[in-house]
Amino acid sequence: MGEAVQLVRxxxxxxxLNAPGIILDxxxxxxxxxxxxxxxxxxxxxxxxxxAQIGTCYKQxxxxxxxxxxxxxxxxxxxxxxxxxxxxxxxxxxxxxxxSRQVRVHCWRGGMRSGAIAWMLDLAGFKVTTLSGGxxxxxxWVLSRFADPKPIAILGGMTGxxxxxxxxxxxxxxxxxxxxxxxxxxxxxxxxALGLPPQPSTEHFENxxxxxxxxxxxxxxxxxxxxxxxxxxxxxxxxxxxxMDCAPVLEITRSRxxxxxxxxxxxxxxxxxxxxxxxxxxxxxLGGQQTKRAIDLIxxxxxxxxxEIILAYYDKTYTYDLQRRNVSVYPVDATGxxxxxxxxxxxxxxxxxxxxxx
Length: 358
Hints:
This protein is α/β, with parallel strands linked by helices. 55% of the residues lie in helices and 13% in strands.
């Protein structure tokens, strides 16, 4: 008699996310590309074309015919699926000591696609868990996370204040940081996408934020940079934005010359045509004459002089947003200081304010 086949377990979203093993997303490549559970690996049962073919069959001939077509399309693929799963679990084991031959599998609704892959891997000796309700259940979980109240401190400061570097310094000290711009692959201005990878969809942006938000310690403060509702094409979840809008702001203040020097360092290697195009996008707000002057300066390679003009718009926008928040703002003078010195000053200021408010 051979060994008994292990039973596949269907887990709720909380248990599924905390279970051991790599996550195999068996949806089609386009579904996965649109948005996914962070860290999941695409392991499609069907290609996009095959999925469309099955969908058409279902509409025209019904479920039974679609299921039969699905089996026909997977014919000859099973050995490849098993080999790929072994390779992925072996790689995970070598990389970070993950549990060998343990996998978590999900599709869109926790139906036939994940069931088929789970059944096959279970027969092949894997320990398999599936997600009850599939990716759709994960999305419900994501959207419910943002209503969870957590203590927030907002890091403010005009464009070029070095807020990104300060957030990174806070992370290095083990402090909780939600870096929305890093997740969005965008710096939050007309120039924000220059030199960065393509942005995720808003749906995947939400997925990434939710998993981080859920992992934060609710007893400790989370630092977030002051942002508008949109970071490039990504929208900050409304419930999270409302929490940010009510949080106190610690505002980094630096000299204009320091801010321009910081921006030259960030954008100095960017393509001039892309810089000019980004400047053209804010023509209505900057004004026609000022836009032309800034573009001419960029064309001549005089980026610092162009930024002097452009900052007039961004400083005005930042000031308006800060006044709109109607919350306490605590300035932190960072002029002439290093990132390490600014970070220490910022944390000392925050501790002092916390003691005053106790």
